[in-house]
C-alpha cells in the first residue's frame, strides 16, 4: 500500500498538502495559523511550543508509530480497514452469554448512530440545549423501569458486568445486615462474575459463588445477593422465597436480567428484587465484538438517591413549562473524593438512545411479537432435541438451552461451525445455544442436525410452524407461575411512532432541540470536543465489525484483534510506555485498571502495606473515587497560587508516608491548564519513596508528539479515546479508556478471557482481573481512533497538539482583557485550555458564570466548563479542529457578553432583569404581545448580526433545577401533564 505524505510539524504550516486528512482535521490553514501566532507575538509554531512546553518534558526526537511510516489518505485508510474487516468471520451466533443478534431498524441506524447531531453532542450538563437527548434518555429510563418492575432507573451504565459490580457496592452501603459476605449466583454470566470479583477484592468483600437453586442458603450469612434471572444456561427460577428470607435479615437483593425476556417474564421487581441490572444490547444495538452497549440499573424507590451514574428528571423552566435535566446533581453524584462509592463519570448515552428508540419504534406489541417468536423457537428446539434422544439440561427457559452431548461437544461445535453457526462450548460434554431476533428456522435446523442428527429439511418445517404459531400469548418454556401479567410501555410515546415517517420526524424533532458539534464549537475545558471525521466513523456499522460476538473463536476475530493490538502499540509509542490494554470501556475504568496494576505490583513485591494515594486538590473527582475503589487511602496535596502542585506540601506528605505510599495521581498538563515545570521532580520524589506515578491522560491532547509521560517519569496512564483520539462523546457516552504502562507493570494488565495476555505471555496468577465485560472492551468503536491515527500519522498528530496549544493561547489572549486568565505557565502561556475568572465581575455585577453560560446559548454556543476546577470560573478548550473564524465568533460572543455585563454594572439594566439573568430566550418567550424587559427583543434574540442568518432556537428557558429535585419525576410524565402545560 502506498501512503500520502502528511504535513510535517515544523514552523511552516503551509507544508500540508492540499486535501490531506491532517489539513482537513486542523481547523486553521497556514495563513490563519501565522496570524494567530503573530497575535501572540511568535514568529513560528516551534517558538510557541518551546515557550509553552517545559524543556524537561519535551521530546528530543520526533514521534514515530510502529508499522506506520507515513500517514494514509482517506481512501487508503478505508481500503485498509476493509482489509482488516475481511479478516473477521461473521457467522450466525447462538453463543448468547449476554450478547445477541439484533436487527437495528434502518431509520435508527441512519438517523441516530450515523447522525452527527446525535453522536457529536456532549453530556447534557447544560439541559436547555439538550432537551432532545434528555427526552430519549427519559424514554430509556421509563422502558427499563417498566420492564424490570422497579420504580427508578438510571440513564445507562457502561455494560452489564460493570452494572453488576455497581450493584455489589450499592448493596453493601444500603444493607442493614452486619454480614461480611455477598452471594453471587454461580449461574450469572462468566464475564459478570469476573468483573464483580475484580471489584470486590480490593474492597475486602468476600464473595460466595454458589447456585442458590441447588444449595441451601443461610440468609443471615450475606449482606446482599446477585441472582441470575434468567441464568446463563437459560434457566428461569422463582426467587421470591429466597428474596424474602434475605430481606428478613436486612440484606439487599440484586438480579441480572434481560429486557426482552422481561416482556414475558414476571419482572424481578415483582418478586422482590431491590436492584435489577443488565444490558440493553439486544434492543437494536449490534454486538460489535463486545460493545459499546447501554448497561442499565433499576432500583426501588428507597434507593433512588444512591443510584450510581446519571438520572434524568422532569422539572420546569422559568415560564413553568415542563423541561428535562439531570437530576440530583448526577454530574458528580458519587464522585466525592475519598468519600466516593463509585467512579462512574460517563454513560452509554448514544447506545441508550438507540435502545430506547428501538422500543419506541416497536412498541410493547412489537417487542412481545419478537419475544414470542424467540420463546416459540426455543421450545420447539428443546422438544426436537428431546425427541431425538438428546438430554436438554434447561427445562424452563426463554431463549437459551444447554444440551448434554457426552464427549462430543467439540465435534458438535465444529459441525455447526461448518454450517456457519457458532454454538457455545460449555465443557467437553455440554453445548449451549441461544435464540434471538435474527435466528432463522434454517439456522436452527442446521443446529439440530449438528447436535442430534435431526433431519435438516423436516426440522425447518417444524421450526417454521413454530414461528407461524408464535404470538403475544406464546409462553414457550417459561414456567406458568412466572409469566408476566402486568402491562408495560403504556405511555403514548411508545405508541405514537410506529411508522417510519413518524419515527423519522420524531428523531428529527429531538435532534433539532439540541446543540452539538455539527452546529457550532463546543469549547469545553477538560472534555476535548474535536472533529469526529466521517471517514473515521464509516467502519463502525460495517457488518464485519458490528456483527461479531465477543466470545467467538479467536480465528473469527482476527481483524478486530489485529486492529486493537496495532492501536495499543500506537498508544504505547505515543506515550512512551511499554504495554497497553484496550479493555477499559471508560476513562474511569482505565483509572481503576491502572491503580489496580500498581496495587498488584506492590503486593507482588511483598509491599502490601503500600496503600496511600496522593492526589492534588485540583484533580478530577474520578481520581479519588478510583483510588478508593482500588483499596487505597486518599491523601490530598495542596496547590500553590499559580495552580501548580505545592511542592512543599507534596514533599512533606511523601516523607510522612514513605513506608506506605502506593501512588501519586497527577494530571498533566494540569487540571488548571498549564504545563507544570516541576513534573519530573515530582515523579522523582514519589519514586524515591517507593511509590508509583499515575499520570491521568485526560489532557493528552496537548502532548501527543511533544512529550511522552513514560519518558519523563510516569509509570502508568489511562487515555480518553473520546477526547484525544476522536471517538465521539455521543451525548454522554460511549467512551474508551485504555490503560498504558511501563514494563514492570505490564504483567498486571486487566485479564483477558484467554490464558495469555495480548503480547502472548502467560497471565500471572496475581494479575488484575477483568475490568469490563468484553476482552476488547468497546471494540466496535476502536476503528474510529485507529483511522484517526493512521490518517494523521506521527507528524499530523504532533501538529494537532501544536494546534490545540495555539488555539487555547489565542483565545486566552483575545479574552484576557475582559475575563482574566486565572493560571498560566512559567512563561505566561496556557496549555490546551484556559480558565477565565468571572469572580471579579460577579462581585461587581451579580452576574454569575451560570448567567454567562446561559446567555451563550442565545449566541449559539455551548458553554465552557463551569466551576471546575475553580468555582465561579469558565474553563475553555478550543481544540485544534476549530478554525480561526469559529474561534473569533466565540470570542466575539464573549466580548459582547462582557459589554452586557457592563450595562448591569453601570445600572443601565437592573440586576434582576437583564438579558443575562433571563437567558436563554426561546422564541415562545419573544413572541408575546407585551414585552416588559428593559432590553429589546432584538437584543435578546439576535445579539450579533450574523445570528439572523444562522440561529439556534433553544426550546426552553432556564430550567429550575431545585424544583426538579424537590419533585423528583424520572419517567415519562402522564400525557395530561404535558397537555396542561
Automatic annotation (TrEMBL):
Reaction it catalyzes: N(6)-[(R)-lipoyl]-L-lysyl-[glycine-cleavage complex H protein] + glycine + H(+) = N(6)-[(R)-S(8)-aminomethyldihydrolipoyl]-L-lysyl-[glycine-cleavage complex H protein] + CO2
InterPro entries recorded for this chain? GcvP, GDC-P_C, GDC-P_N, GDC_P, PyrdxlP-dep_Trfase, PyrdxlP-dep_Trfase_major, PyrdxlP-dep_Trfase_small
Q: Which gene encodes it?
A: gcvP
One Pfam family here: GcvP2_C
Where do the Glycine dehydrogenase C-terminal domain residues begin and end?
Answer: 800-921
GO terms for cellular component: cytosol; glycine cleavage complex
Protein name (record): Glycine dehydrogenase (decarboxylating)
Q: Enumerate the cofactors the protein uses.
A: pyridoxal 5'-phosphate
Q: Record's family? A: Belongs to the GcvP family.
The Glycine cleavage system P-protein N-terminal domain extends over 24-444, 493-744
Q: What does this protein do?
A: The glycine cleavage system catalyzes the degradation of glycine. The P protein binds the alpha-amino group of glycine through its pyridoxal phosphate cofactor; CO(2) is released and the remaining methylamine moiety is then transferred to the lipoamide cofactor of the H protein.
The keyword Aminoacyl-tRNA synthetase belongs to this UniProt entry's keyword annotation: no
- Tell me which EC number(s) this protein carries: 1.4.4.2
Residues with the modification N6-(pyridoxal phosphate)lysine, per the entry, are: 723
Q: Which SUPFAM superfamilies match?
A: PLP-dependent transferases
Give the UniProt record's GO annotations in the biological process aspect: glycine decarboxylation via glycine cleavage system
A GO MF label: pyridoxal phosphate binding
Group of enzyme by EC? oxidoreductase
Q: How does it assemble?
A: The glycine cleavage system is composed of four proteins: P, T, L and H.
Q: Which organism is it from?
A: Candidatus Neomicrothrix parvicella RN1
Amino acid at each position: 500500500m502506498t501512503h500520502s505524505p502528511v504535513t510535517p510539524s515544523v514552523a511552516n504550516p503551509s507544508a500540508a498538502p492540499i486535501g490531506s486528512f491532517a489539513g482537513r482535521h486542523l481547523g486553521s490553514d497556514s495563513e490563519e495559523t501565522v496570524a494567530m501566532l503573530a497575535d501572540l507575538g511568535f514568529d513560528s509554531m516551534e517558538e510557541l511550543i518551546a515557550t509553552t512546553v517545559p524543556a524537561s518534558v519535551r521530546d528530543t526526537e520526533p514521534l514515530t508509530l510502529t508499522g506506520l511510516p507515513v500517514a494514509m489518505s482517506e481512501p487508503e485508510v478505508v481500503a485498509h480497514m476493509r482489509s482488516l474487516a475481511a479478516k473477521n468471520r461473521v457467522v450466525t451466533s447462538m453463543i448468547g452469554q449476554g450478547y445477541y443478534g439484533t436487527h437495528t431498524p434502518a431509520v435508527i441506524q441512519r438517523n441516530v448512530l450515523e447522525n452527527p447531531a446525535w453522536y457529536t453532542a456532549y453530556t447534557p450538563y447544560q439541559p436547555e440545549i439538550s432537551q432532545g437527548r434528555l427526552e430519549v434518555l427519559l424514554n430509556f429510563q421509563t422502558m427499563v423501569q417498566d420492564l424490570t418492575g422497579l420504580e427508578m432507573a438510571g440513564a445507562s451504565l457502561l455494560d452489564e458486568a460493570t452494572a453488576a459490580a455497581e450493584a455489589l457496592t450499592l448493596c453493601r452501603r444500603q444493607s442493614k445486615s452486619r454480614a461480611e459476605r455477598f452471594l453471587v449466583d454461580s449461574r450469572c454470566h462468566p464475564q459478570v462474575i469476573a468483573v464483580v470479583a475484580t471489584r470486590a477484592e480490593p474492597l475486602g468483600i468476600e464473595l460466595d459463588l454458589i447456585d442458590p437453586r441447588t444449595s441451601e442458603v443461610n440468609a443471615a450469612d450475606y449482606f446482599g445477593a446477585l441472582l441470575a434471572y434468567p441464568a446463563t444456561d437459560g434457566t428461569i427460577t422463582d426467587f421470591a422465597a429466597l428474596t424474602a428470607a434475605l430481606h428478613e435479615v436486612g440484606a439487599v437483593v440484586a438480579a441480572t436480567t434481560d429486557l426482552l425476556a422481561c416482556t414475558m417474564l414476571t419482572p424481578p421487581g415483582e418478586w422482590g428484587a431491590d436492584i435489577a441490572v443488565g444490558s440493553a444490547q439486544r434492543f437494536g444495538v449490534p454486538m460489535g465484538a463486545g460493545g459499546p452497549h447501554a448497561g442499565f440499573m433499576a432500583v426501588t424507590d428507597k434507593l433512588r438517591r444512591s443510584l450510581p451514574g446519571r438520572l434524568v428528571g422532569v422539572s420546569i423552566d422559568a415560564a413553568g413549562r415542563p423541561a428535562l435535566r439531570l437530576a440530583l446533581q448526577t454530574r458528580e453524584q458519587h464522585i466525592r473524593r475519598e468519600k466516593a462509592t463509585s467512579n462512574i463519570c460517563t454513560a452509554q448515552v448514544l447506545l441508550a438512545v438507540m435502545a430506547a428508540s428501538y422500543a419506541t419504534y416497536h412498541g410493547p406489541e412489537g417487542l412481545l411479537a419478537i419475544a414470542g417468536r424467540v420463546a416459540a423457537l426455543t421450545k420447539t428446539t428443546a422438544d426436537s432435541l428431546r425427541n431425538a434422544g438428546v438430554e436438554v439440561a434447561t427445562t424452563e427457559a426463554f431463549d437459551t438451552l444447554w444440551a448434554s452431548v457426552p464427549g462430543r461437544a467439540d465435534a458438535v461445535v465444529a459441525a455447526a461451525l461448518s454450517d456457519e453457526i457458532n454454538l457455545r462450548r460449555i465443557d467437553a460434554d455440554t453445548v449451549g445455544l441461544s435464540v434471538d431476533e435474527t435466528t432463522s428456522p434454517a439456522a436452527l435446523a442446521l443446529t439440530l442436525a449438528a447436535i442430534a442428527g435431526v433431519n435438516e429439511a423436516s426440522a425447518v418445517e417444524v421450526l417454521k410452524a413454530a414461528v407461524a404459531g408464535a404470538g403475544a400469548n406464546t409462553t414457550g418454556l417459561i414456567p406458568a407461575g412466572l409469566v408476566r401479567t402486568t402491562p408495560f410501555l403504556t405511555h403514548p410515546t411508545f405508541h405514537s411512532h410506529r411508522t417510519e415517517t413518524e419515527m423519522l420526524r420524531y428523531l428529527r424533532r429531538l435532534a433539532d432541540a439540541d446543540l452539538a458539534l455539527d452546529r457550532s464549537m463546543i469549547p469545553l475545558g477538560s472534555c476535548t470536543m474535536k472533529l469526529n471525521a466521517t471517514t473515521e466513523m464509516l467502519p463502525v456499522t460495517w457488518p464485519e465489525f458490528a456483527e461479531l460476538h465477543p466470545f467467538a473463536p479467536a480465528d473469527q476475530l482476527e481483524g478486530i484483534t489485529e486492529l486493537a493490538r496495532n492501536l495499543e502499540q500506537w498508544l504505547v509509542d505515543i506515550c512512551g510506555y511499554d504495554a497497553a490494554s484496550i479493555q477499559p470501556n471508560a476513562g474511569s475504568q482505565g483509572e481503576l485498571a491502572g491503580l489496580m496494576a500498581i496495587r498488584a505490583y506492590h503486593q507482588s513485591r511483598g509491599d502490601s502495606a503500600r496503600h496511600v494515594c496522593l492526589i492534588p486538590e485540583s484533580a478530577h473527582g474520578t481520581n479519588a473515587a478510583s483510588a478508593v475503589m482500588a483499596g487505597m487511602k486518599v491523601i490530598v496535596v495542596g496547590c500553590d497560587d499559580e495552580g501548580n502542585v505545592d511542592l512543599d506540601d507534596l514533599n512533606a506528605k511523601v516523607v510522612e508516608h514513605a513506608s506506605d505510599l502506593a501512588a501519586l495521581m497527577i494530571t498533566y498538563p494540569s487540571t488548571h491548564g498549564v504545563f507544570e515545570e516541576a513534573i519530573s521532580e515530582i515523579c522523582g520524589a514519589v519514586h524515591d519513596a517507593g511509590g508509583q506515578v499515575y499520570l491521568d491522560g485526560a489532557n493528552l491532547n496537548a502532548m501527543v508528539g511533544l512529550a511522552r509521560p513514560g519518558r519523563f517519569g510516569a509509570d502508568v496512564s489511562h487515555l480518553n479515546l473520546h477526547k484525544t483520539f476522536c471517538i465521539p462523546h455521543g451525548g454522554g457516552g460511549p467512551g474508551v479508556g485504555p490503560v498504558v504502562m511501563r514494563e514492570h507493570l505490564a504483567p498486571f494488565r486487566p485479564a483477558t478471557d484467554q490464558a495469555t495476555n495480548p503480547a502472548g505471555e502467560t497471565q500471572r496468577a496475581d494479575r488484575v482481573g477483568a475490568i469490563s465485560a468484553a476482552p476488547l472492551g468497546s471494540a466496535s468503536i476502536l476503528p474510529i481512533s485507529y483511522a484517526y491515527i493512521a490518517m494523521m500519522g506521527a507528524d499530523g498528530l504532533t501538529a494537532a497538539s501544536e494546534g490545540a496549544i495555539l488555539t487555547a493561547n489565542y483565545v486566552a489572549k483575545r479574552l484576557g482583557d475582559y475575563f482574566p486568565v486565572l493560571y498560566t505557565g512559567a512563561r505566561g502561556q496556557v496549555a490546551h485550555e484556559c480558565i477565565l475568572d468571572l469572580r471579579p465581575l460577579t462581585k461587581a455585577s451579580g452576574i454569575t458564570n451560570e448567567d454567562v453560560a446561559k446567555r451563550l446559548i442565545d449566541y449559539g454556543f455551548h458553554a465552557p466548563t463551569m466551576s471546575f476546577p475553580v468555582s465561579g470560573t469558565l474553563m475553555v478548550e478550543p481544540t485544534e479542529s476549530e478554525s480561526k473564524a469559529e474561534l473569533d465568533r466565540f470570542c466575539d460572543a464573549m466580548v459582547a457578553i462582557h459589554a452586557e455585563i457592563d450595562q448591569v454594572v453601570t445600572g443601565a439594566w437592573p440586576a434582576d432583569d437583564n438579558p443575562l439573568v433571563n437567558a436563554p430566550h426561546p422564541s415562545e418567550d419573544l413572541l408575546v404581545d407585551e414585552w416588559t424587559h428593559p432590553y429589546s427583543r432584538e437584543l435578546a434574540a439576535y445579539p450579533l448580526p450574523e445570528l439572523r442568518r444562522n440561529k439556534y432556537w433553544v426550546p426552553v428557558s432556564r430550567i429550575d433545577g431545585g424544583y426538579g429535585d424537590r419533585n423528583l419525576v424520572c419517567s415519562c410524565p402522564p400525557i395530561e401533564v404535558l397537555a396542561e402545560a
